[in-house]
Amino acid sequence: MDAAAAHDYARKLIDEAHALTGDETVALIESHIAHNYGLLSRDPVVKAEGPWLYLKSGRKIFDGVAAYSAANLGHGHPLVREALKAFLGSHAPTVLGRFLPDPWLALFGRKVTQMTGFDKFLPANGGVEGPEAAFKLARRWAHKVKGVKGTPTILYANHCFHGRTLTVTQMFDEDEKAAREGFGPWASGFKRVEYNDLAAVEAAVDEHTAAIIVEPIQGEGGINVPDEGYLRALIELGRRENFLVIFDEVQTGWARTGELFAWQHEGPDARPDIMCIGKSVSGGYAPVSGILAKDELMSLFGPGSHGSTFGGCPISSCIAYAALHAIEEEKLVQQAQEKGEWLMERLQELAERAPRIKEVRGKGMMFGIELTKDGPDGHHFTELLLEKGAIIKDTHHWVLRFTPPIVAGKQDLEFALGCLEEVFVGQTASA
Ligand SMILES: Cc1ncc(COP(=O)(O)O)c(C=O)c1O
Questions:
Q1: Which amino acids bring their CB within 6 angstroms of ligand 1?
Q2: Atom of ligand 1 at shortest range from CA of 278
Q3: Based on the domain organization, do 239 and 361 belong to the same domain?
Q4: Can you list the alpha helix ranges (DSSP code H) found in 286-361?
Q5: Which of 30, 112, 322, 343 is deepest in the core (most CB within 10 A)?
Q6: pTM score
Q7: Are strands 120-124 and 153-157 parallel, antiparallel or unpaired?
């Protein structure tokens, strides 16, 4: 197909997408796509810019979830868009076997290691591939370096979320039936401990322990912030007892909590042995993830030990390279600190007037609004908030997750606060 014919053909495809009505869109999804997600709305999103989503019906809604922190830079950040357009215009290869060198992976690799302070990066795609790769690395370290005889153990925390592959599915809490039921048997070598409880980790560690994996703030589990010093204490314990510490920063990373990574709130001594990244590393443009570690650890992965066709492919690397520049240029960490503090004050103040709000917690621009249990649950409020014009979504029934794009302006955030005000206090939104 030549370029002119492709242009006309592509135009037809775009027109076809534009012509679909809301009902047709939903009907096609329901008949052809697995029902592993429920739909919150039947009004398709047809455009997105910054913190705003534009719907087929003509409505505009505030994205207070930022695609679970994949859109920290907002939707369609212009630097990433321009880089991507130029990349495509240059006819660079979009995918290559990793046995061929590519300048975009080279630049992305240098940038991601410089920004994070780790020696080496292993690129992948979806967020869950980070924990998966980290477990392989930890097990190899346990067998080859620590000298574990038998099965190495990896500890994980109550209420954690590390993704949906078979290995991590067992990590859901026992009562999370939709997530767990019918998927056993589970992989051996994993053991649950209480989150934010150092003594529980100490009690669980033995000569078989390879690693512990922890989210520095639990996202899906309800925005659970551990006590100050917990992360640093885990690192100290790991050094003392000879096991690795893996921090899963897939959701908390890239400025979300007011530091580039959430462990940095506890200073340089809280640096993990392995860090998992994902989501906003690509500015929300593509599935990009991976793990970072010191050279001596990452060198346990030699050729043939791990890989992925699209992990670190040129188009993903170009997108991520541009997104990392955007994170710096936007001073995203500073924005998250400033707006986060302001938002926390406003949310706390609102909570005092809202009988159904039990607590507001979080760090930076990662908030959990916990509800009292004497009325409808979080899903009900998510629906009411959507009617008002904002997506602020329930997790674990009784917590609303509010993680807006960090680039959202104060006026945009005022709109979201107004929606919360109307729903929880019943007055007219101030925006
Ligand atoms: C902490 C954490 N780890 C891993 C994942 C999995 O990422 P993905 O859904 O891209 O596989 C998520 C997703 O929300 C997450 O929050």
A1: 68, 126-128, 161-163, 215, 219-220, 248, 250-251, 278
A2: 10
A3: no
A4: 295-298, 314-329, 332-353
A5: 322
A6: 0.97
A7: unpaired
